[in-house]
TrEMBL record:
InterPro entries: Acyl_CoA_acyltransferase (IPR016181), Glycosyl_Hydrolase_84 (IPR051822), GNAT_dom (IPR000182)
Transmembrane segments: none
Record domain N-acetyltransferase: where: 74-206
Biological classification of the source: Bacteria, Thermotogati, Deinococcota, Deinococci, Deinococcales
The entry's keywords: Transferase
Species name: Deinococcus cavernae
Protein name, per record: GNAT family N-acetyltransferase
A GO MF label: acyltransferase activity, transferring groups other than amino-acyl groups
Gene3D superfamilies: 3.40.630.30
């Protein structure tokens, strides 16, 4: 664990977003051996938030650089429409759709590319009560000492300030530390899936 300063993310943090997303992309562990293209995870789960929802992107930074971030979209369905117009078309030209490859035969890269062509959509039931969604990733040196809570509370404050009524997130079932972290913060399990869980929190928080 390291002492770190918390600040709003800046455009020049993009490289760090790609790196951190990859280095935490295997249920919190390093995913760099799983993907041939090191930018794929960041294309889907990190950098579009920095580009299109910068008011809800915060980082932890120490002498080694940025080592963690929290990102969110306050209106998930509106964010998804923005990406459909301004983000996915460029990437779709770069990465061919693997639709002709059977799902069970796809590589990790191809599974991620499939999300570029067929991104997940927020269901109306989540959107009505928990319209925001978030991601948080910290490198090992940033974990512990309350750094994750600092990031989360800063983000939740920002969402409350714009009147957001609730936020949701997805977490893999193998990532037991993250599941415990979210429960400790007060997130409630909304759904269980074969891959993990959807958690939600109503805003403003009842402290």
């Amino acid at each position: 664990m390291t002492s770190a300063a918390l600040r709003r993310a800046r455009p020049e943090d993009e490289r760090a977003f790609y790196d951190i997303c990859l280095l935490t992309g295997d249920s919190g562990a390093d995913a760099s051996t799983l993907y041939k293209d090191p930018q794929l995870l960041g294309h889907v789960y990190a950098v579009p938030y920095l580009r299109f929802a910068p008011d809800f992107a915060f980082v932890l930074e120490d002498a080694e650089g940025v080592g963690g971030y929290v990102i969110a979209a306050p209106d998930s369905q509106a964010f998804e429409e923005t990406l459909e117009r301004e983000w996915w078309p460029i990437l779709r030209q770069q990465y061919p759709d693997p639709a002709n490859i059977p799902r069970e035969e796809r590589t990790p890269d191809q599974r991620m590319i499939n999300l570029i062509h067929h991104p997940n959509r927020t269901h109306d039931d989540l959107q009505s009560e928990y319209p925001a969604h978030l991601h948080i990733d910290l490198l090992p040196r940033m974990q512990g000492g309350g750094n994750g809570k600092r990031l989360m509370y800063t983000l939740l404050d920002a969402l409350e300030d714009v009147g957001c009524p609730g936020v949701h997130l997805g977490v893999g079932g193998r990532n037991e530390n993250a599941v415990g972290f979210y429960r400790h913060l007060g997130f409630q399990q909304l759904q269980a899936h074969p891959w993990g869980y959807t958690f939600g929190m109503s805003l403003p928080r009842r402290l």
